[in-house]
Design brief:
With about 90 residues, the chain is mainly alpha-helical. It is built from 3 helices and 2 strands, in the order αβααβ.
Length: about 90
């Protein structure tokens, strides 16, 4: 998602807290489109998402998280089709 945020021109970046534009990707909402979801789905299916480990993430559970990601994509598409906005947000 950080790469998508960069590609979209760092949308929603808080310029007041970072006048130099150097902030990291944390607590920054990124609006997702159908195209973004299609790309995400392809990355999930191809196993292209980066591995993540650590205290908050536990051990690597690729199949479990793949199912969760695909379910999110399905629900996000339904929300977009219903005229809603879908936003990814992170905090760490």
């Amino acid at each position: 998602m950080e790469n998508l945020w960069e590609k979209k021109g760092r949308q929603n970046q808080n310029a007041d807290s970072d006048p130099m534009g150097l902030s990291d990707f944390n607590c920054v909402p990124v609006e997702l489109t159908h195209e973004d979801l299609n790309n995400l789905e392809q990355d999930v299916m191809d196993g292209e998402l980066p591995s993540t480990a650590g205290f908050f993430f536990g051990s690597d559970s690729d199949e479990y998280y793949q199912r969760q990601d695909l379910e999110f994509i399905k629900k996000a598409r339904e929300a977009l089709d219903a005229g809603l906005t879908v936003v990814y947000d992170s905090w760490w």
